[in-house]
Amino acid sequence: MTVTTPKGFTASGIAAGIKASGRADLAVVQNTGPHFAAAGLFTRNRVHAAPVKWSRQAVSDGQLAAVVLNSGGANACTGADGFADAARMAAATAGHLRLPADDVAVCSTGLIGIRLPMDTVLEGIETACAGLTDDGGAAAATAIMTTDSVPKTAVREQDGWSIGGMAKGAGMLAPGLATMLVVITTDADITAEQCDAALRDACRVSFDRADSDGCMSTNDTVLLLASGASAVAPGTDAFTDALTELCHDLAGQLIADAEGASHEIAIEVVGALYEEDAELVGREIARSNLFKCAIFGNDPNWGRVLSAIGVTDADFDPDMIDVSFNGVQVCRGGQIGEDRSLVDLTGRHVHVLVDLHAGEHTATILTNDLTYEYVKENAEYSS
């Protein structure tokens, strides 16, 4: 159940030889139509990779017919030669699939500052294009992994139409899309304008609220391709809701697989005067190393939550804040609440609820405690 679940899509994933480990490292996803509407969102990092530059141009007309993706090399900070390599990847894919090159997006992930082995890449593209199938989504999801321990896929099936997605990302998870490559497909009959609006809304409350280590990548890319093959045209709200659910699912999988994390933490901020305030407060808590150390030590240290909130310029009264860990309100009205020994943080999932009592707006930030205890000799560093 992945990017080839919706009608009108094929995919493949192969070991082209880009990675020294010999693991799968190149994928292709093709939209076979009848329509080719698309939208994309990219890293806000001013230092961004050649594939990001190429794909921004490719999707600017609201149309894509294919995506070629590689792991094992980010093709970032490689100058004009790197951009030429990204263009060659698009042209090669387009040539094998008989498409215009500017209808092919390119995504890369891996080490920054290293040129891709283009002879190997181009041979791999030929093989991957020849091997496209309507059940190749799982192989594609595996081929884009770097330090990921598991492939990440999700599907939402609706009345006569569906959405499928795959993602990679296990480090440099921070807003500006988290560090990731994401390809989302749908057989809904929607326009490029609908794709763009829905993708922006969905990413705003999902990927943009996933924050593991506060580091923003150079290669972040989220692409949405719509084939229209179901011949069903859902309402904009219905499509956006389903897309948002799928993006939340994938964002949660990214956080769950972050390198070395022993806890997955959902920081829910309620009672904010503005949504921006709720997000600001949640993000400040998520980026507090002291807070994360407390969670790793199974300590519901609500003082570290309040101290993080206090450095923001959100509207709140310090004497009104409530904080709960896994349902136990350890801070009430900015003071001592329930006995903190009642809180159990030994499980992997942690829910921190902060009530500012300033308004009605909410936001949830996903993060983790990042202990970095993964086996380094098995890691292939992500972009």
TrEMBL record:
Feature type site, description Cleavage: 178-179
EC number(s) per entry: 2.3.1.35, 2.3.1.1
Record: active site: 179
GO biological process: L-arginine biosynthetic process; ornithine biosynthetic process
Any one annotated GO CC term: cytoplasm
Cellular compartment(s): Cytoplasm
Enzyme superclass (EC): transferase
Annotated site location: Involved in the stabilization of negative charge on the oxyanion by the formation of the oxyanion hole: 109-110
The keyword Hydrolase belongs to this UniProt entry's keyword annotation: no
Catalysed transformations (reactions): N(2)-acetyl-L-ornithine + L-glutamate = N-acetyl-L-glutamate + L-ornithine; L-glutamate + acetyl-CoA = N-acetyl-L-glutamate + CoA + H(+)
Entry keyword set: Acyltransferase, Amino-acid biosynthesis, Arginine biosynthesis, Autocatalytic cleavage, Cytoplasm, Multifunctional enzyme, Transferase
Binding site for substrate: 146, 168, 179, 259, 378, 383
Alphabetized GO MF terms: L-glutamate N-acetyltransferase activity; L-glutamate N-acetyltransferase activity, acting on acetyl-L-ornithine as donor
Predominant place of localization: cytoplasm
InterPro entries: Arg_biosynth_ArgJ, ArgJ-like_dom_sf, ArgJ_beta_C
A family per Pfam: ArgJ
Pathway as given in its UniProt record: Amino-acid biosynthesis; L-arginine biosynthesis; N(2)-acetyl-L-ornithine from L-glutamate: step 1/4; Amino-acid biosynthesis; L-arginine biosynthesis; L-ornithine and N-acetyl-L-glutamate from L-glutamate and N(2)-acetyl-L-ornithine (cyclic): step 1/1
Record note on quaternary structure: Heterotetramer of two alpha and two beta chains.
Function recorded in the entry: Catalyzes two activities which are involved in the cyclic version of arginine biosynthesis: the synthesis of N-acetylglutamate from glutamate and acetyl-CoA as the acetyl donor, and of ornithine by transacetylation between N(2)-acetylornithine and glutamate.
Record family assignment: Belongs to the ArgJ family.
Name of protein: Arginine biosynthesis bifunctional protein ArgJ
The encoding gene: argJ
